[in-house]
């Protein structure tokens, strides 16, 4: 077969049947074979970076390697932000990127693609020769799994019509669980936990497969449970869940965390938003358990650390506590969990004419949005209030594009997630600036692909973070403000249903539209830029 056919067949060999991309000279025949001969699903995007974002979301939610494809040169440079987001999120995915022919250095789209990829933190894999195509695809997929990051496979365009003998290559990514070590580190950790009077268990997304074991440890210690932002929703069903730990905690939960004397952290790197730049760790013993050695002490140096599997370690700690007949701490008996997790209700009468109160709108949306939703957010001033007020069914049904501090990535992630959970509606919260940057590009993609998507645009007619900085310094914020077009009308023009919310009555109509939706729905919340809550950071 030809090389382009061998590449597509290699994806089928790995049972990878969904690809996001934008076709060009170097990949169009491969995409055609993937769909027509392989029966795969190809999602054509409007902008190359969108393909990477959709693939990272699809891979993260589906629990497999995401696949994107682009052509060469400007197609790759259009992916730099998305690749950086994916690399920092530690999500395995492969980008099948074309490259110009070595024999044609004057090609207008010729650049050093290896160096371009390097700056993003993604891996780079060169397709070495036509006859190694299937091996190189398999090795790129293997690397993405074991390195937990995107890998760009560089495919020279002049290879595509070379004839080769296809050989099936599938390399297993070994995932042996790391057991709890014996010795001084374990003894120190057990000692700190056993002597704690007010312990709290904190879990990150790295502990998502150990929920039952961690909850059992919490019950044994009589310790409340909390999560990082990325693990939002992990302990929804537990009666002693105090929700997000850190700068996103309620004031009451923050105070309760302050009273703790020991933090047992599973599967988190203890980012400075989680620890409030270390303030929440002062006066406490911190025990960190992480299966990746580079994540231990990456952001905060604990008092004891174990490079170990979260579930096995939680079980082992319970065993030692039972052996030593250590009593429960009684800490949970001191806490009113409902009070610790309650956020102040929004005031429907607070908004000026022509606007809706943001907190009130979020409270109403929390009740009206489908309960089985997948929740995702773009970046912007609006986001922290969403994280605090809008729930998700589980940690695996939530994703925030916050790893690179970029805006304009949310809608693409929502579309990718939708292909991984086709039986669930996807809910995206985005800002006006982010929607203008990336949402308009791809809203029609959701329409074309007939996705069950609900987009809420928090439109304060400003770049909110910059607006606040101008106001704080008593400067004119005018340069940070914009007279955008109607996003609701844009949503309708792009084939969806758009609804503008400028009053509480409009909000009632928008909530009714959620129940009756039959295509992608865009709800535009008109917000007073001077009355949007500050980010809880």
From TrEMBL:
Gene Ontology MF, one? thiamine pyrophosphate binding
Alphabetized, the UniProt keywords read:
Thiamine pyrophosphate, Transferase
User: Where does the source fall among the domains of life?
Assistant: Bacteria
Tell me one GO biological process term.
isoleucine biosynthetic process
> What residues does the Thiamine pyrophosphate enzyme central domain cover?
186-315
* Domain Thiamine pyrophosphate enzyme TPP-binding: start-end pairs: 389-524
Q: Which GO terms describe its cellular component?
A: acetolactate synthase complex
Tell me the SUPFAM superfamilies matching this sequence.
DHS-like NAD/FAD-binding domain, Thiamin diphosphate-binding fold (THDP-binding)
Where does the Thiamine pyrophosphate enzyme N-terminal TPP-binding domain lie?
A: 3-113
Any Pfam family matching the protein: TPP_enzyme_N
Listed Gene3D superfamilies: 3.40.50.970, TPP-binding domain (3.40.50.1220)
The record's family statement is: Belongs to the TPP enzyme family.
Q: What is this protein called?
A: Acetolactate synthase
Organism of derivation: Pseudooceanicola nanhaiensis
């Amino acid at each position: 077969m030809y090389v382009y056919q061998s590449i597509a067949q290699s994806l089928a060999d790995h049972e990878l049947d969904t690809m996001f991309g934008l076709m060009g000279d170097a990949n169009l025949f491969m995409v055609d074979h993937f769909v027509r001969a392989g029966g795969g699903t190809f999602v054509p995007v409007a902008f190359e970076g969108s393909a990477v974002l959709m693939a990272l979301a699809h891979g993260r939610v589906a629990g497999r390697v995401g696949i994107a494809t682009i052509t060469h040169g400007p197609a790759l440079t259009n992916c730099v932000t998305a690749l950086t987001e994916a690399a920092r999120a530690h999500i395995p995915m492969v980008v099948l990127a074309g490259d110009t022919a070595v024999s044609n250095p004057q090609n207008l789209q010729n650049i050093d693609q290896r160096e371009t990829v390097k700056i993003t933190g993604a891996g780079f894999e060169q397709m070495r020769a036509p006859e190694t195509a299937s091996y190189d695809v398999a090795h790129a997929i293997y690397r993405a799994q074991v390195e937990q990051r995107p890998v760009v496979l560089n495919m020279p365009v002049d290879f595509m019509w070379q004839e080769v003998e296809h050989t099936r290559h599938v390399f297993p990514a070994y995932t042996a669980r790391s057991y709890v070590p014996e010795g001084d580190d374990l003894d120190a950790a057990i000692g700190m936990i056993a002597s704690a009077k007010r312990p709290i268990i904190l879990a990150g997304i790295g502990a998502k497969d150990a929920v039952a074991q961690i909850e059992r440890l919490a019950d044994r210690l009589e310790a409340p449970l909390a999560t990082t932002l990325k693990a939002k929703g992990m302990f929804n069903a537990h009666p002693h869940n105090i929700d997000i730990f850190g700068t996103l905690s309620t004031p009451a939960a923050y105070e309760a965390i302050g009273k703790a004397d020991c933090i047992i952290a599973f599967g988190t790197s203890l980012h400075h938003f989680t620890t409030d730049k270390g303030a929440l760790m002062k006066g406490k013993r911190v025990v960190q358990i992480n299966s990746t050695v580079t994540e231990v002490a990456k952001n905060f140096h604990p008092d004891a650390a174990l490079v170990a599997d979260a579930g096995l370690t939680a079980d082992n700690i319970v065993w030692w506590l039972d052996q030593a007949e250590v009593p429960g701490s009684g800490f949970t008996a001191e806490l009113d969990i409902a009070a610790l997790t309650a956020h102040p209700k929004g005031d429907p009468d607070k908004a000026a004419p022509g606007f809706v109160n943001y907190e009130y709108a979020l409270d109403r949306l929390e009740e009206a949005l489908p309960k089985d939703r997948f929740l995702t957010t773009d970046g912007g001033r609006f986001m922290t209030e969403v994280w605090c007020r809008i729930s998700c069914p589980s940690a695996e049904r939530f994703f925030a594009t916050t790893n690179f501090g970029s805006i304009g990535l949310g809608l693409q992630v929502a579309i990718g997630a939708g292909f991984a959970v086709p039986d669930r509606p996807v809910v995206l919260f985005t800002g006006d600036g982010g929607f203008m940057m990336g949402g308009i590009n791809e809203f029609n993609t959701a329409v074309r692909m007939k996705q069950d998507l609900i987009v809420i645009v928090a439109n304060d007619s400003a770049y909110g973070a910059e607006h606040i900085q101008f106001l704080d310094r008593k400067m004119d914020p005018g340069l940070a403000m914009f007279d955008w077009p109607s996003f609701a009308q844009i949503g309708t023009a792009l084939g969806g249903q758009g609804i503008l919310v400028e009053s509480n009555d409009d909000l009632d109509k928008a909530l009714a539209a959620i129940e009756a939706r039959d295509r992608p729905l865009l709800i535009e919340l008109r917000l007073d830029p001077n009355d949007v809550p500050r980010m809880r950071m």
